Amino acid sequence: MIRGEKARRSAPAAMWGGLLFGALALAGLILTGAARAGEPAGTPPRAPGPEVNADAACPPRTESAARTTGTEPRGHAHLTPEEAAALDRQLNDALITQRAPTVGHRKTVPTVVHVVSAGDGRGALTDDQVARQIQTMNKGFSGGYGPGADTGFRFDLRDVTRTVDDSWFEAFTQHESAIKQKLRRGGADTLNLYMVNLPEGMLGRSTFPQQYKASPQLDGVVVDYRTIPGGERKNFNLGFTATHETGHWLGLFHTFQNGCRYPGDYVRDTPYEREQAVGCPHGRDTCPQPGRDPIHNFMNYSNDPCMTHFTHGQAQRMTDHWRAFRAL
After folding, report:
1. Number of domains observed in the structure of the chain
2. Is residue 245 annotated as a catalytic residue, yes or no?
3. 2: in domain
4. Which of 74, 220, 269, 278 has a CB 3.0–4.6 Å from the CB of 3, allowing a cystine?
């Protein structure tokens, strides 16, 4: 999934949408039907909310092809409800033969950071800047920014690669496949974090765990180098883009997935939300189901200063994906 910064979808984002759909198809997902609400997907499915007018409550595809409001959205090749349901079915199927979840148990994720910079020094992050980004992720996943869950995930920086290439820096999305095939390290359990120059309108994006088997060379998280702690992206420079995208890498959907419609984002303790948050709209409540919109959740589109936490349900769902697809 992609975290972007403008009120439109760029051509590279559309290209990634094709890659995403292709990877899902290669993985053998049937993108039709509803989620298996009765199966044990780790985190039990939330109960259906009150009946609402679907057309009035949320558009047919709440995670639309572009983020359409705000000055610095996260922007995505978004999942349709059918695509999200297909990913959830694959999780259910993978967990059938697995043992009970291990929420709270420490899960150390080997992490390799790839810095792609230009010959004039743009994008050339220092070791200290990379280390602070990893520290920010560890603090977020441990519940260190506010009320929320310690997910149990910790990221262990194993290596930093540095590539100086003007063409790669100026047109990362055009060269993405070749770049990843050359630089990627490790297996399904290794987080490859690419710190690059993304085009106008995009802050970051990620693959899902279910995609690894079909396209291991594309697996990883991509973030704009200006989103690091202290970076140049106003309102998005606390390092939370990497946290948000790594949530996707561990299987989470956006909090506004499916809008006000059941099953939302497939997590019990995140309130339904009609659409992504912009800025930090305190007190916003866009759905008739209980709870105000989760604007402080790392899986929303709020500004970085507004984000504080993952929930216990999200921690469970990430743990389930880790067991099913990454801790192999």
Report:
1. 1
2. yes
3. no
4. 74
Domain that holds residue 183: 107-249+322-326
Q: What is the pLDDT of residues 140-193, one digit of tens each?
A: 999 999 899 999 999 999 999 999 999 999 999 999 999 999 999 999 999 999
Whether 40 is covered by a domain: the verdict is: no
CATH of the domain at 142: 3.40.390.10
- DSSP readout, 144-211? TTSSS---SEEEEEEEEEEEE-HHHHHTHHHHHHHHHHHH--S-TT-EEEEEE-PPTT--EEE--GGG
Burial 23-57 (b: 16+ CB within 10 A, else e): bbeebebebeeebebebebbbebbeebeebeeeeb
Instruction: Say what the pLDDT of residue 266 is.
Output: 96
Q: Which of 63, 72, 83, 245 is catalytic?
A: 245
Q: Phi/psi zone of residue 91: left (φ > 0), alpha (ψ -120 to 50 degrees), beta?
A: alpha
Q: Name the token pair of 248.
A: 């996707």
Cβ atoms within 10 Å, residue 318: 29
